[in-house]
RNA polymerase subunit sigma-24
Amino acid sequence: MDERAAGAVEAVFREERGRLLASLVHRFGDLDLAEDVASEAIEAALEHWPRRGVPARPGAWLLTTARRRAVDRLRRDQAYAARIALLQAEADRAGPAMPPDPDGDLPDERLSLFFTCAHPALPAEDRGALTLRCLAGLATPEVARAYLVPVPTMAQRIVRAKKKIRDARIPFRVPGPDELPQRLPGVLQVVYSIFTEGYAASTGPHLQRLDLAEEAIRLARILRRLLPAEREVTGLLALMLLVHARRDARTGPDGGVVLLDDQDRGRWDRAMIEEGRQLVVTALTGGPPGPYGVQAAIAALHGEAADVATTDWPQVVALYDVLLVLTPSPVVALNRAAAVAMRDGPAAGLALLDELADEPRLRAYHPFAAARADLLSRLGRFAEAAAAYRQALDLAGTEPERAYLRSRLESAELSASDG
């Protein structure tokens, strides 16, 4: 097919899929139906656009096509139509949860779907998985990678979550103000998972998926407008801005990985860092800190430092100590160990990593093996470092990461043979 048409379809699908799906779910009240007809609309675009040209408003074209397909399905299945009508009636009776924004910037319709996917009636492990699959458009293997679980397990979770929404008649709406604070943590976790996949893609030819990272930031800004007093919303936005500010320096001209030590900090987005730093102050003011606020404070310390050597590593370690209390997890412990290595030396960091070696979640997490390999190399234990690099290489998902690990493996093997 025409490359321009194919590129337009891909771009529209990437940018509009969540919006399209949310509009269809809002109209028809069924997630499976919405996904099916959204996919059919994309297939129709692939068929018609090469012959007739890309429409001036491709997103609107896709929405119109998908709606027509949905109506056709419902007309053919009256029992299905009756069930959908009942769900839609319940959603209509619920009414709008939030008043219109005085500036005319209405809450994105996708927020209804976010809060539905993060509904407390769903098991906690299913909420983020469903949202990433439906609203971020991630493939099931990518969602599985984000949550460090096998692909079949993740596929079962997604099917189970959809069935629960359907059977429990969970309405597709943004909750009212009294309910929002209880529902918020799940939504924040979902938004951060989207950002994480954008910051460090699980698979593919590129290290970063900037579209996902920027989408997560946009959604966090909307959440902050909806809940300006919620400090963890502010903390999450601050964290993502401070990390995303390094995006241009994280890869070289060939797309290869550039580690923090070697990044040109002149390429960091200083305006984004300054916005993030100001938000950190808000996130940490007025009560005990939350996990996102603490992580944002760590990111701010990196943003303030002239280089790795002058980073306030004692303060970074102290903040990780706080974070481990708030959200104890193997990944947080891994990050703390890396910071300890910078403060106290590679032997101290390696000792902490070795204590984590039996953690099941870290066995399939390539940054753990890569961190061990780096510390072993710094200690001159090159044969062991090479073995750890091989393990990391087997687990890494993107080609830039694999290329970097291959180069480090070759260096470690060469040093080991020389020794």
